[in-house]
Write a structure and sequence with these properties.
about 500 residues, alpha+beta, 11 strands, about 15% strand
Amino acid sequence: MKAVVECVPNFSEGRNPEVIQQITDAIGSVTGVQVLSASSDESHNRTVVTFAGDPQSVSEAAFRGIAAANELIDLDEHEGEHPRLGAADVVPFIPVSGISIAECAELARRLGKRVGAELAHPVYLYEHAAMMPERRNLADVRRGEYEIWKEQVGVDPDRKPDYGPAEPRKSGATIIGARPFLIAFNAYLSTSDVSVAQKIARSIRHSSGGLRFVKALGLEVDGAAQISMNLTDFGKTPIHQVLELIRVEAAQYGAAVTHTELVGLIPQQALIDSAKWYLGLHDLESDQVLENALKSGEADDPVDAASELLEAVAAGTPTPGGGSVAAVAAALASALGSMVSQLTLNRKRYVEVHADAARLLDELAQLQNQLLDAAKEDSAAYEQVVKAMRYSRLEDADSAKAEEMIEDATRYAGEVPLRTAESAIQVMDILLELAKIGNTYALTDVGVGAQMARAAVESAALNVLVNGSSLKDQVLADIWRAKVEQLRQEAEERLMATMKRVVERGGIG
């Protein structure tokens, strides 16, 4: 399953459309990322952007969004109803599919380290990414907001960032973490008395003894009292339960809920759960929704879906290039192995190898994700080389810095295909095992996979060698050459062994 991550950064700007557009453009400039929504609130002076994609692309997009916000937003000039600590205030990663919350936490830590180092910007980690228990809760990290933080950060050891300098700056600090999906949900009251909203928020939020998985604040927005909420587990504390409690509490003060609003996106299941409750449709199923029924009947041709990749490779641009194609070839080989594993699982004829087939299926899924990430990373590595070369041609370029940039970029451009070749060898190991135990009706697919993986090793090797020839560090280049020769030999040996098994067990004459 392809790894998909959602990111929902909150930026401290909700009034200047040009600034908001520049930030969203920076995020959307990353290939592989889809910007799903951008919701701005003038009273909060805050914008929430939602985007999703593969882990590496989402992390890069988040980095560019943070960099743009730091450049464009001055918190010394910022005012708004919503608490904030930074220009890019909070940046959470949320697992969607093919990735765990723990992996998202690691993604958050890597981004935090990068932001701290490359942008010289203070970063705190929260929720599942927190490295200190006292920083797990977002409200605790943000307590006092920007104004208090800038006075304490260089003085109070408890305010030392997890990454980046412990010094105040106009962009504040960014809080990066990993969390499950939450619903940002606001309820407006028929009163302008903000104290009523504050009392209701206190009664419903979990930290004050209210509902589990509810965070709430009472604010004044456009002359109306608003209860601003984050619902952190709608499955256990559904949205309709929260709303009905607000209505009961508001009635005690002679107020009512006039309307509600969403900030960002909401899972369809949350709406279905509310429909079940309000309409009494206790047996409602998602496939009873017309659009869902129509969508489930659509049969996309997977071969047609591959045309997008073919068009991208054939487009006449340097990326995606041979390194990416090598990684995709190895990923396709792993996918063929996954197919054979599944055709072996739960077949009575192969009951003795079910456990082995299940293990190989898990290993192949991990390798496939790694290889797809490598295909993206290869393009990113090429872009770093181009960036370094462009810098070296500038009239005011520092020659020493330019040389270092080119060397670092070239090293990175060689390391990526080297990892691809190593992963392809791992795929070949698994395919050899499948040739021994897999469903005999699918053995030719094992053979095709082995040929693809071998081609991936050879193709990746070319990219390693060409980058090695450009390195100043020829000691490292020699290490790469020796490693490539070893991998090529291993690939040839595994291919021969696999094809022998395919021919013998498949009865291919």
